[in-house]
Amino acid sequence: MILYLHGFDATSPGNHQKVLQLKMIDDDVRMINYSTVHPRHDMQHLLNEVTKQLNYSDDKNPIIVGVGLGGYWAERIGFLCKLRSVQFNPNLWPHTNMVGKIDRPEEYEDIADKCAKDFRKLNQSRSLVILSRNDEVLDITEIAATLAPFYDVVWDEQQPHKFPKISAHLSRIDAFRNA
């Protein structure tokens, strides 16, 4: 089972395309919707939904995949639910770069404090990070520097921020999930 978390643009048709691409490595892909604008509510909602989906599945190697803001959540929810995660161009600092787009962006700082201290160290090697050198939204160099000490980082030379074509990375995702 693959749990898919969309980015800030929840209604983008690209989300459906990514789900279809992920189905090439697993027929059971479940998109979990969340508001994107209420961080504290989103965290509780995602924890509840992921737990529910895990209870409805007998998959021995479920994985959570997120793009952009969904990558932020995939890392954290994956850690809390003991799932491997894949982050495409994760937005690691929504409290600074989404001001004016979301309600109460400061809640992201509070959420960071709620996770275990040094959670990335505890989650070492349990996430795969795929970054686009052509990301027009985020500072990918800073994201790579933050995550590389803990996770494998893979570079994509062609995709933009929303990563419409993830198919070039499917075999790597499948191998990571089954490792």
TrEMBL record:
Gene3D superfamilies recorded: alpha/beta hydrolase (3.40.50.1820)
Pfam families, A to Z: UPF0227
Domain of life of the source: Bacteria
GO molecular function, one term: hydrolase activity
Keyword Transmembrane: no
Alphabetic keyword roster: Hydrolase
Tagged with keyword Repeat: no
InterPro entries: AB_hydrolase_fold (IPR029058), UPF0227/Esterase_YqiA (IPR008886)
UniProt cross-references to SUPFAM superfamilies, sorted A to Z: alpha/beta-Hydrolases
UniProt xrefs under PANTHER family: ESTERASE YQIA-RELATED (PTHR35602), UPF0227 PROTEIN YCFP (PTHR35602:SF2)
NCBIfam families noted in UniProt: PRK04940.1
The protein's name: Alpha/beta hydrolase
Species this protein is from: Ferrimonas lipolytica
